[in-house]
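Objective 1b. Sequence-to-structure analysis of M20 family metallopeptidase.
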Amino acid sequence: MIRFLEQQQQNMIDLIERLVNIDSGSINKDGVNEIGKILQEHFQEIGFKVDVVEEQEHGDHLIIQHEEATKPDIIILAHMDTVFPEGTASERPFHIKGDRAYGPGVIDMKSSIVSLLFAVKLLVHQQKKGYKNIQIILNSDEEMGSLTSRSLIEREAAGKKYALVMEPARSDGSLVTSRKGNGVYTLTVEGKAAHSGIEPEKGRSAIEELAHKVIQLHELSDYEKGISVSVGLIEGGSTVNTISDHAVAHIDVRISDLEQAESLERSIERICSTTDVSGTKTLLEGEINRPPMESNKENESLLRIIQDIGDEIGVNIEGTNTGGGSDASFTSALGIATIDGLGPVGGNPHSEKEYMDIPSLLPRTLLLATIIQQLTDKHT
């Protein structure tokens, strides 16, 4: 099996380069759809049908399965969007230095998508029946919290036995068996403008009110319990000599288990429903939109199967937990045995130093293909 992949390695790298050099940030509908059309052609060439789920604001989602598939047991999740603004691909396009490939989205997760495609091609080439036992969802808004694709993922995942999620492996090669849940809130504060030198007493500072809220929100963090609340971005004011009449805070929330969500949401709402600066008004929007991917017996059992497969093909596999969110949370919350981090090994996602370890590309692709086939054999 590895010989086929060795023969295809340059084709894999060429396709990764092509995808990386297309801007496909979550708000870049045309770019994401260009990625989707390229992948649609590749899957159709090997006998897969592709259903396009059209979206108005963001890129379209793809549902992919073989023409002869009936009721696949395995759902595979990957996303086509990145976090990078338009123009990034031309500023720092795909390039290779030593054993690493660089470029925007190279590890999160364009290399993973190519690895998935060629794992399927391998199964088709070997005439293994596993390729008829998978359904693939390629969504366009994962980096924004899967706002439109969550319902699609949950609907298609219903009744599946396994979920394989193509986020990259950790930098040490570990797979992900648990993740924190997360949410994003926006707090908007309205005040009253006034000249800070002539009549400051007539103003009501939205920035001052926001400052009180930032401190109170940060105090909700409890790192020992795996709870973090962080205001990562603020906006406000118009000029330095004007009492600000408008300010905004963007709030990131992480939880370790689902039971923490309700009480934390109540605390956030309580803080934001009152004001410390009289004459100001607050508006809170958002929610905890990804449940935690909790470590459970289903996920751990699937990990052991994958570790055994890794031993067979010479790939050491360890499991780990991480604070980052992914679509794995949705399938795990449904009780489906879920493993994440099945893409190639890499690091520094969402940054200028993002990379993919080229030597990991073929072993991880072989691992994925073997997982699909052995899970299929297990139930036939």
